[in-house]
């Protein structure tokens, strides 16, 4: 744990797990410009971490490998953590919501297709709700999350799920298994609007499951293999490193390799965490300038 968070100076902490799009099908586009999506989503045990404590005035501090890339946004008040704090405080206008020091340990790459900012915003909502002793109806919290971004309601759950619409229609998957995984990112920015703009078609087939939901790890892996990420082909056109990255992960005998979200993060599923850790270590030696992380995904809560 980061030394700042290990010092015991904060009242509570919240994990912000990386969001992994195991599949992403683009179904259409609404009149307001939002794309209609079907997504199979899981969450990694690796991610950012936030800490909270009451303070004399609002504070926000950063640490972690990718913290320097967020400093300018934080100073300008554009960070999603600060927006989540302010929006929640507005909703709690009848409840005392005193100043708070929020610390973000930024371990995930920025704008990388694994929901880092959205996960941070969701963790902020969870953490401040606890810190301020607020008893909000679940639907109210979900509405706040959706105002912050289409991915935030999913990250609020941080459990395996299917999301439809723009991400607001969520079905939890209580029997979903955990997977050993390597995450990789070439640390090259990919514009999400540009990826969507380059889609060859926006009315692709929906996310379909067999007549009965898959049971167990092996059936789910076969199902994941049969699905796709419609954003991967245009993202590869924009960022050639994605193809190289996917090839490197696949060369380590990953069972399934795919891009997450709009990129540029790719994941590989492995049989065991030991295999994933060995693969991540080898990939890091091959490309020390890139990001590689072995992790496991969070299982459903049956």
UniProtKB/TrEMBL annotation:
Which UniProt keywords are listed? ATP-binding, Isoprene biosynthesis, Kinase, Nucleotide-binding, Transferase
Q: Which reaction does it catalyse?
A: 4-CDP-2-C-methyl-D-erythritol + ATP = 4-CDP-2-C-methyl-D-erythritol 2-phosphate + ADP + H(+)
Q: Name one GO molecular function term.
A: ATP binding
Outline the extent of the GHMP kinase N-terminal domain.
79-157
Q: Copy the pathway line from the protein's UniProt record.
A: Isoprenoid biosynthesis; isopentenyl diphosphate biosynthesis via DXP pathway; isopentenyl diphosphate from 1-deoxy-D-xylulose 5-phosphate: step 3/6
**Domain GHMP kinase C-terminal stretches:** 227-281
EC number, as in UniProt: 2.7.1.148
The Gene Ontology biological process terms listed for this entry are: isopentenyl diphosphate biosynthetic process, methylerythritol 4-phosphate pathway; terpenoid biosynthetic process
Which residues participate directly in catalysis?
19, 151
Please provide an example of a Pfam family that matches this protein in its UniProt record. Answer: GHMP_kinases_C
- Which residues span the membrane? none
Q: Identify the residues that bind ATP.
A: 109-119
HAMAP family registered for this protein in UniProt = IspE
Q: What does this protein do?
A: Catalyzes the phosphorylation of the position 2 hydroxy group of 4-diphosphocytidyl-2C-methyl-D-erythritol.
Q: Which family does it belong to?
A: Belongs to the GHMP kinase family. IspE subfamily.
**Name recorded for this polypeptide:** 4-diphosphocytidyl-2-C-methyl-D-erythritol kinase
């Amino acid at each position: 744990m980061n030394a700042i968070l290990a010092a015991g100076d904060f009242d509570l902490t919240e994990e912000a797990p990386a969001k992994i799009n195991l599949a992403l099908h683009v179904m259409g586009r609404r009149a307001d410009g939002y794309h209609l999506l079907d997504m199979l989503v899981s969450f990694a045990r690796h991610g950012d971490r936030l800490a909270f404590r009451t303070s004399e005035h609002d504070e926000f501090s950063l640490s972690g490998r990718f913290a320097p890339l967020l400093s300018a946004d934080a100073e300008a008040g554009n960070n999603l953590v600060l927006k989540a704090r302010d929006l929640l405080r507005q909703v709690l206008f009848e409840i005392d919501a005193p100043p708070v020091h929020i610390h973000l340990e930024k371990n995930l790459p920025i704008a990388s297709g694994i929901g880092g900012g959205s996960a941070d915003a969701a963790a902020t909502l969870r953490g401040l709700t606890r810190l301020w002793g607020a008893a909000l109806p679940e639907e109210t919290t979900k509405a706040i999350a959706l105002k912050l971004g289409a991915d935030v309601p999913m990250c609020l759950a941080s459990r395996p799920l299917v999301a439809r619409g723009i991400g607001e229609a969520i079905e939890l998957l209580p029997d979903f298994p955990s997977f050993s995984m390597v995450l990789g990112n070439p640390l090259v920015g990919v514009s999400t609007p540009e990826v969507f703009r380059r889609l060859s078609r926006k009315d692709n087939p929906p996310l379909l499951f067999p007549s009965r939901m898959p049971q167990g790890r092996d059936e789910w892996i076969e199902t994941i293999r049969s699905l796709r990420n419609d954003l991967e082909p245009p993202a590869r056109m924009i960022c050639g490193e994605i193809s190289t990255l996917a090839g490197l992960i696949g060369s380590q005998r990953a069972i399934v390799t795919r891009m997450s979200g709009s990129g540029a993060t790719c994941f590989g599923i492995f049989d065991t965490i030991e295999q994933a850790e060995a693969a991540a270590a080898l990939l890091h030696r091959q490309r020390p300038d890139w990001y590689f992380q072995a992790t496991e995904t969070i299982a459903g809560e049956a």
